Amino acid sequence: MATDPTSGEGFPGDPDVILSVRDLEVRFRSKEGEVLAVNKVSFNLRKGETTIEVNSYFNNKKIPEWWVSHIKNNETTIVEIQPVVVIDAEFTEPEIETKSKTIRINTNLIGDIKTIDEKSINVGPINLTLKSFSAYWSNITNETTELLLNISVYNPISYSIPMPQISYNISMNNITIGNGSISDNYILKANNFSTISLVTNINNSLIDEWFVSHLQNNESSIFEITINAEIKYKEISYFIDELLNYKYEFNTDILGHEL
Known about the structure:
Helix content is 8%, strand content 56%. The protein is mostly beta strands.
């Protein structure tokens, strides 16, 4: 932040100091009013141009709350960056809000899922085909974020194939934010397409750990969903490693904006 004062008598003992700033506070505030980051610095404003460097620190405890709001708002966040100056006057300390800047953060974590290509899956004597995959955000609470997955698989043989167990792992920057196993006795119909519907859960309390990695990685992340499965054919169990593997890379520019 730079100023160019044109007048001032200076402070006693230091004629170059024209103003004492007790706090220069930079706030990162979401649309809902949550303060995501803040820092304060004190300095003396001297004649001429003064450049001040302020390091702002995100409150990681607020990040899971931000995630819930971000997903509920169609993966969109509006952040206001607001510098606030508190003047150290003789009898008062007025607070002055300077010009703020608004930035928009958009992600599209599951938007490209429908564009995945067909995939041939060779398992034992069977050649299955992954035909399509879709995902939708569902029930969102302070603790968990539900992600609904629909997977369409083609079974070309004349026998129905039981799928007794499916496991999933959801990660960002290789940090697991959700995983689990589902035993629902799915059946892949003979000579037909079958849709497997899964309810997966993201643990919101793990989002702050991902956010640290996101900032450390120059605001870049890879969102990844991996699905593994077990099938049975003629009483023999076969394990499908990566029935599905979906990756989406995204970037933000929260800290790259000048005030």
